[in-house]
Amino acid sequence: MAEAADFQGTSASPARRWLRRTGALLAGAPLLAGLLQLPAATPADAAGQESPQVASSAGSVSVAVDSLTPSAPSEGDTVTVSGTVTNNGKQTVTGAHVDLQVGPPLETRSAIDTLAKKSDDLQGPSGEKVGGKYTEKFPALTPGVAEPFSISVPADKLDLGDDGVYQLAVALSGKTSAQPWEQVLGIQRTFLPWQPEEAGTKTKTTFLWPLISSAHMAAETGSNEQQTPVFRDDELAEEIAPGGRLDQMVSLGKGLDVTWVVDPDLLASVDAMTGSYQVRTADGSTTPGKNQEIAKHWLAELQQAVTGEEVAALPFGDPDLASLAHNGTNVTGSLNHLKEATDAADKTVGTILHVKPSTDFVWPVDGAVDPSIVKVATSAGADKVITRSDSLQDNLSYTPSAARPIGGGTTAVVADSRMSTAFQGDLTRASASTLAVQRFLAQSLTLGLQTGKQRSVVVAPQRMPSVSQAQAMAEALAALQGGNWSESQDLTAAAKAKPDPAANTKVPPASAYPRSLSKQELPREAFEQIAETQRKLDKFKVILTRQSRVVTPFGRAMNREMSTSWRGRGVAAVGYRDGIESYLNGLIDGVKLIQKSETKLSGRSAMIPVTVQNNLVQGVERLKLRLTSQNPTRLKIGGDAYEEQPVTVNGGHAQSVKFTTSANANGQAKVVAQLYTEDGQRYGAPVAFDVRVTEVTPTVMLVIGGGVLLLVLAGFRMYTQRKRAAAREAAEDDTAEAGDDTDGAQSQVDAPQNPETSDARLEQETEAESRADGPEQPSDPAPDTAAESADPSGTGERVDR
Fold first, then answer.
1. Whole-model pTM above 0.90?
2. Is 629 left (phi over 0), alpha (psi -120 to 50) or beta?
3. Which of 335, 373, 318 is nearest to 562 (CA)?
4. Edge-first strand listing for the sheet containing 620-629
């Protein structure tokens, strides 16, 4: 990217430098001519020279600048440079001393980049030595020993001229026994921004402060009424604990003027930790979570930090827009998940942080875009895409403002790539952190000096800064906000700023998308698996009486399956998706048919029970159970080949459904039981079992008829015997009446009955009645209804008639 070679208002200092350099060349010409006529100088001769030379053992001493305060000095300030020097060679360095050297201003942003890449190169420019008392001496530097140094010098002694970024080098010179002459053995260059007075036109700077983490929750919840959340690990507690990464992001960002960019999933996860929760252990079991107080403290600190500041909410789970655009748009339902994630963002952030977030922004990975990414990014309703200047490049001699229209009512907010990447890499060493801070400030000031027009610049750092990176970011931003050339601006204002008419508004083609980023994308198979999980969920939820207990946690889990945090973690991403689908399969299998063994059916009709088991906590409904006969000519179900009945089962219970059957012939018939949803979709696995039919035959009917005939004959015999007995009694009564002259009819009525005669008659009547009822015959059918049970049917199970 081309940049301006000169700055406005910086002509005086280059002129002075030109005159100084020309004079030095003229004065040194005779000396140079004389030197050409002399033999090469020996080391002894070189030792007497005043100017240090670059030794053959260059770089044998490392110089680390651990701090530079103030980072951007003003007039009247005292600049203090502290650090360490370490002798990495094998010989002791004698006569060592550390000096500060101030070089000329760096006039372009690319010059800053070049110097940063060669910050410890002895062959590069070093500038003029401050000298005098502003040096630190060491009698000797022992090999392998680090010695601290600290040099303080008033800013007016640095001979700084016009506003700009100056090279500040810390050089160590000394001697060794093998090379006993003065030489530079180590150097470290950094940058010194110089803007002592308020700039007439300040750059408006927007710094994004990201609160994003990886996925720590899946879809699993407890079976209790509160649905206790289950965490995959306890790593989130470590991040929000005092000193943790997210704890530092909140505590450092609290005093800065930044735009908070938040993943709602992080907030939802920490909020879940404030109550009762479980943590999955390595052996698959769960243990109660114990970090409720840490979670409450972190949320309270965050709520305080964002008060009065802008909060931009990313879609729930921070979905990978590039992966979705390149590999997921052809998979049914993928874009719906992005819309759901966007809708969930506003409610989640508003409920937990008590602020109204902006949901107009999306942030592709590293700000890299192409037409398909922009299309997907705006499909869920967002109309502002945070991109980066190394993706949407400009061919200008200056850096234009961040906002620019890219068509279709969409605004690209182009973050500055140099400033956005300034804090990447390992910044655990103080020297690395200091260099990053000074480089960031140098880029910011140089950008501001390019033109006399006010511009808006956006800084979008890495999504999940480490603790050391966050500390460097906070230090640089504090210096910037306390400086004289920049003022803070929130993201919404930056997006609304007037675009530069010369800025590039053409989105780069797909071929320009970085291959390094393409290799880390979620593959098409990931979106296909998510679609399959959604299909199963849609089929499962229709039978539930309380759908939200399942739909909500699984919906959020599928948002997390699309997260950018899976980049570079392909194996972990597959494991996460497999775990979600496996858990859903387990819930679906909780509603099933109980297996049945062979069933015996005797007679022309009977009732066959089929049991539906519900192992879920909640009840299920809107299910139909269909029982189908595979041989309807032999066995009919409900008068046809099959019969359906509605099914409703309470949570943790089983329900037995009975079907009427009719047999037409002897033999074995296969029967299949299958659950269906209301829309006719199969649910669960079918249960097939055999029904052995034993039909009533003519022989059996003949035997039964003979038995009935015998009962009739026995009854007729008893009837005739009883009639004959009555006739004999009547004859005896007549004889007694004729022989009795005195008693007459009255004596016959009052006479008591003979007890023996009465008992005999009663016994005869009882016997006759017993014979009329008849004894139980071996051919009489016995009840064959088994007790209903949710257990599998035993061998030879009989059915309800």
1. no
2. beta
3. 318
4. 642-649, 620-629, 667-677, 682-694, 599-602, 797-798
